[in-house]
């Protein structure tokens, strides 16, 4: 049975899908059965054997390939870090961090396009605290919580607490934090950083593109709403910069 050597944890609307798609192009890396397995978040009750079956089996006598998956909900789910550490203590963890305000807006418009969000932007942002009030208790009781996954616009942009959970379970040299905007601008360069982190020699990429960034709706947000959002996420950019400095590519060289 297989198991993942690496996990791309998130963040949602940070380029996770695109990064995974290009990382698994490497000939020494094998993709899982699908990208978002959601095992450590939504499908933990399916059991460890089910999860292992989603990865290529190791073949004796052949050069071993690495394998991994990407599920953006892992970064935000309160139980995922502990579960990953229990089953995959040696896995390498990659996270993309996007500007907190832009990420929150992108998630909102993503939910609207999918029909998951009936409220207008301002009402959805104001309703978040009420929607998520019982989320952690519900998840710890083993039940899914729709709003925790779909309506957590501000909360998912507060990276500090999310990364604290992983830092408590994994050493820093098993974690890599990268800037989403850097990946959007230079997919090949950021992918090379991930490959080096995973221990494989970089290969040329053909027509690398970062997709799934939204359709530009955030540019139409009224200035007053954006100012309110900036106020709510005040200080989060500094938190993000601190984590990028702590877990960035240069930190892996020490």
Key terms:
alpha/beta, Rossmann fold
What does this structure look like?
The chain is an alpha/beta fold. The protein has a domain at 6-101 and 156-216 and 237-253: P-loop containing nucleotide triphosphate hydrolases (Rossmann fold). 43% of the residues lie in helices and 9% in strands. It is built from 13 helices and 5 strands. A 5-stranded parallel sheet has the order 2-3-1-4-5. Strand 2 (29-31), helix 2 (48-52) and strand 3 (66-70) form a beta-alpha-beta unit. The longest helix has 14 residues, at 100-113. It is globular and about 55 Å long. The two termini are 34 Å apart.
Summarize the structure.
The protein is an alpha/beta fold and 254 residues long. The protein is 43% helix and 9% strand.
Which strand-content bin applies to the residues?
Answer: 5-15%
Major sheet: size, sense and barrel closure? 5 strands, parallel
What is the helix tally?
13
Distance between the termini: 34 Å
Which CATH-level-2 architecture of the domain at 6-101 and 156-216 and 237-253? 3-Layer(aba) Sandwich
**CATH class categorisation of the domain at 6-101 and 156-216 and 237-253:** Alpha Beta
Question: What's the count of strands?
Answer: 5
Query: Whole-number radius of gyration?
Result: 18 Å
Helix/strand order, N-terminal first: EHEHEHHEHHHHHEHHHH
Shape estimate: globular
């Amino acid at each position: 049975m297989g198991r993942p050597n690496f996990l791309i944890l998130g963040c949602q609307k940070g380029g996770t899908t695109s990064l995974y798609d290009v990382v698994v192009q490497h000939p020494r890396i094998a993709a899982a059965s699908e990208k978002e397995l959601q095992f450590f978040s939504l499908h933990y009750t399916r059991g460890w054997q089910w999860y292992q079956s989603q990865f290529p089996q190791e073949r004796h006598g052949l050069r071993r390939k690495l394998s991994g998956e990407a599920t953006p909900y892992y970064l935000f789910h309160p139980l995922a870090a502990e579960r990953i550490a229990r089953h995959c203590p040696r896995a390498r963890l990659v996270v993309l961090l996007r500007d907190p305000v832009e990420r929150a807006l992108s998630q909102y418009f993503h939910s609207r396009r999918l029909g998951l969000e009936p409220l207008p932007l301002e009402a959805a942002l104001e309703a978040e605290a009420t929607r998520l009030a019982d989320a952690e208790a519900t998840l710890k009781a083993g039940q899914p919580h729709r709003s925790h996954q779909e309506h957590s616009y501000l909360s998912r942009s507060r990276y500090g607490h999310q990364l604290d959970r992983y830092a408590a379970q994994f050493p820093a040299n098993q974690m890599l934090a990268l800037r989403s905007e850097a990946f959007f601008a230079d997919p090949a360069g950021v992918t090379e950083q991930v490959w080096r982190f995973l221990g494989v020699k970089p290969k040329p990429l053909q027509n690398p593109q970062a997709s799934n960034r939204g359709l530009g709706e955030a540019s139409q947000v009224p200035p007053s709403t954006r100012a309110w959002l900036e106020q709510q996420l005040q200080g989060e950019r500094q938190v993000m910069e601190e984590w990028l400095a702590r877990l960035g590519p240069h930190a892996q060289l020490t």
